[in-house]
Design goal:
Elements (H helix, E strand, L loop, with lengths): L1 H7 L6 E9 L9 E9 L2 E6 L12 E4 L3 E5 L1 E6 L15 H12 L5 H17 L2 E8 L5 H14 L2 E6 L11 H11 L8 E5 L16 H9 L3 E8 H13 L7 E7 L3 H10 L2 E4 L1 H7 L8 H6 L5 E2 L12 H20 L11 H15 L17 E5 L11 H8 L5 E6 L2 E5 L2 E2 L4 H19 L9
Parallel strand pairs: 1-4, 1-5, 6-7, 7-8, 8-9, 9-10, 10-11, 11-12, 12-13
Antiparallel strand pairs: 1-2, 2-3, 5-14, 14-15, 15-16, 16-17
Helix pairs in contact: 3-4, 3-14, 7-8, 11-12, 12-13
Amino acid sequence: MRDRLTAAGAEERRRLLLTGATVLTMDPAVEDLPRGDLLIEGEQIAAVGPDLASEVDDGAVLRVDMSGSIVIPGFVDTHRHCWQNQFRRQMSDARIEEYMVDAHEVLAPAYLPEDVYAGCLLSAWGAIDSGVTCLLDFMHNARSLAHSEAAVEAFAEVGIRGVHGAGPPSKGEWDERWLENVATLRETRFGADDGLLTLRLAPFGYPDIDQPAKTLSPRLLEYARELGLGIVVDAVLGPRAGELVAELGEQGLLGPDLTLIHCTEVGAAAWDAIAASDTRVALCPTSDSQLGIHDAVPPLQEALDRGILPGLSVDVECSLSTDFFAQMQAILTIQRMLAFGRLAGGEAGAPEPVRVRQVLEMATVGGARCNGVEDRAGTLTPGKQADLIAIGAEDVNTMPLNNAAATVVLGADSRNVNAVFVAGRPLKWGAELLGCDLEALRAKVTASRDAVRERSGHGDPDVCA
């Protein structure tokens, strides 16, 4: 089947009929199916139904038996720093202050464009492996235009749906042509907004860094909108960031083309402004908690209280898990723990515990809204791009199937992702990443890591520490 799928992928109008799966469409207008079929034509989902065989019985369709699988939209990761992932898990015991020194002051200035390429290539394949079909790369090590182009090239090579968040470095020497380089990227690489790869302006949202030219402002919002770009803002943290968000809301400058990341301890006024303007929110469940970012609590409750559906993100693999399932499990556990604590304390109006289906919606629909791709991804809706994954429901850690959403959110992990399609193209089938030379990738990533260590003077860590 692998060879047939790969061959079919070469046909511009290929037709694939996925049969016999449990289908969660995540679209209220398209029925979920305990057992059903999904038809892919070219890059798009053509139909979803309980039995499509009779409708496509023309001999030209490749039928793929998906019995024992749960088919869902691909996960959408709203924020990951892909350039640094040669250093996966090197900083897992670090606090946020230690991470900032190690990653941004020591390692980042030593990166050449080929190192950015290696880190982003590894990140994109790691995302595909865990069922992420759309990934926003918040590229805050763009020391030159060549560094940014290397990140874009890596995503293009893999074939993932990618959003390049073009941001400035926070530390070290660079060409200081951030906005000029963004304009060049817009003209030369991102002239259209309907392809697999799209572009966003990516400033910081943390006024405490005292780098106003790199921090979210009316000027930067105007610049992005003049270029027709969405905006994604990292490190929206603490009271001063909250004051900034509230002020932008008062000026009418927030909106759905803007995604704010973290939003930890920003205060009620900022949250009210976010809700009123339909500004998007990307949460970082494990990085807030593990790195100790502000109060270390991802602010899901603040979002839910205002009817906001957030997206989820991995953030920094150099400290955290690559596996996107970890983000769903963490946000579910944290919110339910806090909600039950408030209920046990007798608090009037205490929130209800979040449900697994809500968390799956954050990982798909919410993420697509954050990344500006909700018109083409996030749900299994006929007419949208065929970005979807199949989760094995008969594996030792997932069988027997009793609740599909809970199996995905709580039972599964990357090993159960049996198939990944992006725009109808298969990128994973079984346990195999299609088109990924693992030996070559391993050699490239290891050589890059060692070279960055040497140039930065970082030294080799104790792998057994």
